[in-house]
Specification:
The complex is a heterodimer of chains A (215) and B (224). Chain A is α/β, with parallel strands linked by helices. Helices cover 27% and strands 27% of the residues of chain A. Chain A has one domain: P-loop containing nucleotide triphosphate hydrolases (Rossmann fold). By secondary structure, chain B is mainly alpha-helical. In chain B, 79% of the residues lie in helices and 0% in strands. Classes of the chains: A alpha/beta (215), B mainly alpha (224). Chains A and B meet through strand 6 and helix 2 of A and helix 1 and helix 5 of B.
Chain lengths: 215, 224
């Protein structure tokens, strides 16, 4: 596994009395937490407890009903998590008609932040994720696990501080899960942050947040 | 060296449209069928045909523009691309504009190119052929941008195509009025070409300026 030569600038993530609602129902309420560089937060909870809602909210797709979650740099400037975050959800964001390489090259161009470019190519990222053979195949022909690996390759192509992972282990085999764990460790080692919702243990040292679900 | 985000988006849209096929050819065939059907309906009166020909071409172009428009943002919504685009550094308004441009190049531009050929079938004289083609070139971008508003508003609806048509066809009326009056200018001595054509251009420019904001606002709201 290649070590990234750089480390992320110093930021802290502060969530302050955060609340999200879905369909008028409060799913997440009065939630506060803090992360600094190199921290991972694992969110667990029963089905319907609001894990995905929380992650979509942190990624900026839902507006908070109350409270705020912001990144604060050393100078005290506030920035949104969305502008520094990768979101990996249940869909991969890959176009079935395009090859894995074309999809990844597109997302690399789209998601790269100024000053945080990666010289990694889509092929190299696919090789790191153990699926170099799919580069020229249309994504429509890939298995669920291969699609997920192509989706995760995005994380390597455009370096971003915060990884927001919603059930990242879904569809991955044992080797893939081990691979993801080492990618996450590598990211944390560079000073990144990871917020993951998961049912299975990720095998990393992390802060833990249990959402109490009302079924 | 990676290309700029908007160039990458444009080439992705064109590639997806080309691989899936259908987009341009289906639009042109639909356009052709509409233009062919009208003479059957109104009978073989060449004078009448050449008098209403520009209007027929415009209505056919309007309906052909609606084809495939409902998938403009829906496909991206379903496969998660839309969420990822929201986290991009590039403003959503520009992303919308580039997607509309790519959609117009794939579906609108072929109609403009085919219009003079189909105009021959409606017994248009050469001057009217030019006028129709020019007015379609100036007007179809406005139709695509207006359509994008409808597509964004119905992005989460499974069968939003019809609702989208109901929402945007009334908005397209001004474009249709000035498009057809510019296109029919050569048919009578009293109507000039330039005033309606310039108003048509102004409508397109105004839509170009306003629609991306409306579409982006709708998409942000719908992604919640």
């Amino acid at each position: 596994m290649s070590k990234s030569p750089f480390s992320f600038p110093v930021f802290r993530l502060e969530a302050e009395r955060l609340a999200f609602r879905r369909g008028g129902r409060a799913l997440v309420e009065n939630l506060s937490f803090r992360l600094t560089n190199g921290d991972a937060l694992v969110v667990t909870g029963a089905n319907g407890a609001g894990k995905s809602t929380l992650l979509r909210g942190l990624a900026g797709f839902l507006s908070a009903y109350a409270g705020s979650a912001l990144l604060i740099d050393q100078a005290g400037d506030q920035e949104t998590i969305a502008s520094h975050g990768h979101y990996v959800g249940h869909q991969e964001g890959s176009k079935p008609a395009l090859t894995a390489r074309e999809n990844l090259a597109f997302w690399q161009a789209m998601l790269t932040l100024p000053g945080l470019t990666s010289d990694m190519t889509p092929e190299a990222a696919l090789t790191q994720l153990g699926v170099p053979q799919v580069a020229d195949l249309p994504v429509a022909y890939l298995s669920a696990g291969q699609k997920r690996r192509v989706g995760l390759a995005r994380l390597l192509l455009a370096p971003r501080l915060v990884w927001i992972l919603d059930e990242p282990l879904t569809a991955l085999d044992a080797a893939g899960q081990g691979l993801l764990t080492s990618l996450i460790k590598n990211h944390l080692g560079c000073g990144g942050m990871v917020i993951a919702a998961t049912h299975a243990p990720l095998g990393i040292d992390s802060l833990h947040l249990e959402l109490g679900g009302k079924p | 060296m990676s290309p700029s985000p908007l160039m990458a988006l444009f080439s992705r849209e064109i590639r997806v449209a080309r691989r899936l096929g259908g987009g341009s050819t289906m639009g042109i065939i639909f356009f052709l069928i509409l233009v062919t059907i009208v003479p059957f309906a109104i009978g073989p009166d060449l004078n009448l045909l050449s008098r209403i020909g520009p209007a027929i071409l415009w209505i056919a172009a309007l309906l052909a523009t609606l084809l495939g428009l409902d998938r403009l943002f829906q496909a991206d919504h379903e496969d998660g691309s839309l969420d990822l685009m929201l986290t991009s550094d590039t403003p959503l308004e520009l992303i919308v504009l580039v997607k509309c441009l790519a959609h117009w190049v794939v579906t609108g531009l072929p109609l403009v190119i085919a219009a003079p050929l189909f105009g021959l079938m409606l017994a248009l004289d050469p001057q009217a052929l030019w006028a129709v083609t020019l007015s379609l070139l100036a007007g179809t971008p406005a139709l695509a941008l207006l359509g994008a508003i409808g597509a964004a508003l119905t992005v989460t609806l499974r069968r939003g195509g019809l609702l989208m048509a109901i929402l945007i066809l009334p908005l397209a009326i001004p474009v249709l009025i000035f498009g057809v009056s510019a296109a029919s200018a050569s048919l009578s001595a009293t109507t000039p070409f330039w005033p309606p054509f310039l108003i048509l251009c102004a409508l397109t420019l105004a839509t170009l300026a306003a629609a991306p904001f409306a579409v982006a606002a709708a998409l942000r709201h719908m992604s919640e």
